[in-house]
């Protein structure tokens, strides 16, 4: 790997981490989260609204442990989700995608989390809007 590509990957890893932390921050309004999610203003808008309606989201935060790049427009993200500072799900695997020069949380990552939430006791069953 050349120094320039190592520097670019380091910069991209920092950008992915910032997007991830902003997307999962309770302080980020849904209108901003739409801009941080792949297809967040279109097909994923209903899924994002379902995500935001979950009361646990207001207590959640994400910590990125590792970002790797299988190619220039995709990132594999290893992260944990904490509720009120306590890690509830560690070693989670997610994805980020680069679109229009910026990194976004992948729609498949949000769909996976919504499916996990639906499988919990008291979770909703059925089709998650925007997720196939």
From TrEMBL:
<feature type="domain" description="Low molecular weight antigen MTB12-like C-terminal">
    <location>
        <begin position="12"/>
        <end position="120"/>
    </location>
</feature>
<keyword id="KW-0732">Signal</keyword>
<protein>
    <recommendedName>
        <fullName>Low molecular weight antigen MTB12-like C-terminal domain-containing protein</fullName>
    </recommendedName>
</protein>
<dbReference type="Pfam" id="PF26580">
    <property type="entry name" value="Mtb12_C"/>
</dbReference>
<comment type="similarity">
    <text>Belongs to the MTB12 family.</text>
</comment>
<dbReference type="InterPro" id="IPR058644">
    <property type="entry name" value="Mtb12-like_C"/>
</dbReference>
